[in-house]
Each structure stands twice: as structure tokens, then as C-alpha cells.
Amino acid sequence: MSVSALAEREDTRSRSGEPVDEIVLNAVVEAAVSGDAAATEWLLTYVRPLVLRYCQARIGGHRTAISVDDVAQEVLLALFRALPGYRNQGRPFLAFVYGIAGHKVADARRNAARVATALSVPEIPDVASQEATPEQHALQFELTSRMEQLLRKVLSPRQHEILVLRLVVGLSAEEVADVMGSTPGAIRVAQHRALTRLRKVVTRP
After folding, report:
1. Range of the domain at 196
2. Per the domain annotation, does 92 fall within a domain?
3. What is the pTM of this model?
4. Among 89, 93, 177, 184, which one is least packed by beta carbons within 10 Å?
5. 108 plus 178 within the same structural domain
């Protein structure tokens, strides 16, 4: 069976709610690395919703500060450019994808922080505007940044990543274990501890 036929079969499986077969995914990745245009198109289409959810979780809800869609597009473009040089080193392909996504999200946050710092509020307007001003955008980003800083203080980087992959991206414990080079049991324990820690902080008087 050709790679295109395999990919088409996986599309049917995924629409029915079944996960994509790892062997098939690896075959499509190998074909894409070799320059197969159809395999590349299928692969980028497959990872796009995963990348979008990941970026949304890491960036937050304030789209005015950073465009989630733009960052996700940057991730997909970087992935497309990196495919010819990709080599399977025993880790799942999605670990490679999320590695790129993590770097692009960090770049976007740094760039937005520089913009926010450059903006100043000269005076308070007499009449409230119905549209968000650049200063309001900066304030929204500042609030999002503070929330991100709080989460980073409360959780370890590993716990933070596990919660994003499990609760936002929607990966199973087994899939997260593959991505992070761990075991499903360890992922579940880390997730439980992270959620317990967050509850304690939120409910602290």
C-alpha cells in the first residue's frame, strides 16, 4: 500500500475518533522527509490542530497581544523547512514538532514583551473607546505574562508541559510519555501532583 493510501486510511480512522497509527505516521514522516509532496501536505494538515492547541495553551487567551494563528503558522513553516534534515533518533515525531513549537512560542512572547515595554500611556482618555488601544493591548499582555510567571513559580517546567499536553492538546498519558521520554505512570503521577499543587495555591487564604 502506498504512503498516500495509508494516509488516506488514517484520515478515515481519525475522523472516527481513533488515534493515528504510529507505524503509519512514521512512514508518512519518512516519505515527507524524502520530498513526497502529498505526504508533506498530509503531515502538516495532521499536526496543525495539535500545534494550534499547544500555542493557545502556552500563549493564553489574549489574542490581541500575540496572534496564536500567526505563531502556529510560524511553527508549521519552520517544521516544513526542517523536514529535509529530520532524522529519527528514537523519539516520537511529535516530540520534534513540540520542540519547534516551544521555541516559536518563546520567541513570540519575547517579541511581544519588547513591544509592550516600548509602549507608554501618556494620559487617560476622557471618553472610553469601544476598541482596545495599544496601551490596553500592552496591559492585557502584562496580565497574561504575570499569570504565566505565577504558573512557572508554582509548577516545574516539566509539570507545566505535561498539563499543556494532557489537558489542552489532548494527548493521552501514553502519548505524552512518548513525547517526553517517560512512562505513562510517571506522567499520571506528575499530572496529579501538578494539579494538587495548583489547587493548594488557588485555595490558599
Report:
1. 133-204
2. yes
3. 0.66
4. 89
5. no
Residue indicated by cell numbers 514583551: 113
In this structure, what C-alpha cell is assigned to residue 16? 472516527
Considering only CA atoms, which of 61, 160, 138, 51 is closest in space to residue 97?
51
Contact 54, 98 (CB under 8 A): yes
* Cβ atoms within 10 Å, residue 156: 13
- Alpha-carbon torsion (107, 109, 110, 111), positive or negative: positive
Q: Are residues 155 and 182 in the same domain?
A: yes
Q: In this structure, what DSSP letter does residue 84 have? A: G
CATH number at residue 182: 1.10.10.10
Residue-wise pLDDT for 123-175, tens only, equals 434 344 444 455 545 545 544 555 566 667 788 888 888 888 888 778 888 88
Distance, CA of 149 to CA of 80 (rounded, Å): 31
Residues 4 and 66 in one domain: yes
DSSP reduced 3-state for 148? helix
- Nearby residues of 47 by Cβ (< 8 Å), 6 or more positions away: 76, 79, 94, 97
C-alpha cell at 102: 516551544
